[in-house]
Prior knowledge:
By secondary structure, the chain is an alpha/beta fold.
Amino acid sequence: xxxxxxxxxxxxxxxxxxxxxxxxxxxxxxxxxxxxxxxxxxxxxxxxxxxxxxxxxxxxxxxxxxxxxxxxxxxxxxxxxxxxxxxxxxxxxxxxxxxxxxxxxxxxxxxxxxxxxxxxxxxxxxxxxxxxxxxxxxxxxxxxxxxxxxxxxxxxxxxxxxxxxxxxxxxxxxxxxxxxxxxxxxxxxxxxxxxxxxxxxxxxxxxxxxxxxxxxxxxxxxxxxxxxxxxxxxxxxxxxxxxxxx
Length: 246
């Protein structure tokens, strides 16, 4: 098993890509700490993970709130002793054209997507530094590389996640901590299901492989980056998009 007896913390892990990553890690022997704001979703994913024969602790926390982030990480360290893997997955969209976008729409997306990634990275890195090893995987987006109509806030947040990934990789490399990002394209999740059919068809036309990706495509990439097989990879952005951005 690629992650046997490792402890992985995943934010936004109760559904979609986060849930799929948690389940993929569990199948490879990792024990899980899953953080989200949905109590019902957390309980459901806990049952799924424990059915795979590993341990799972769930934590209700808002990634925007430093006190909640710090308390969550400390609880995990108190009970588990260490955190081997951090996956910063929690994210939202609040799409609007720049001319119509409210300050609150801008602030919310930047706060959850970018600040949340920073807060959990900061809270976890001290433990990893003491252990002398660790893996951090940040979920970015191809929109952070190329931008998109009506997603200035989302694209700015994900571009920030990419830049944060590279800076953290440089800072932590001497402590044997690898930090990488995954930039998904259009993945079949609740987020993309909300798109209008016309927009979906337009997006599909720009994907050389001719289909949307699956959450499992992202989970398998995260699994590789979190494993010993990626020990010499850091500061990279792995694009998983069916060839949409080349």
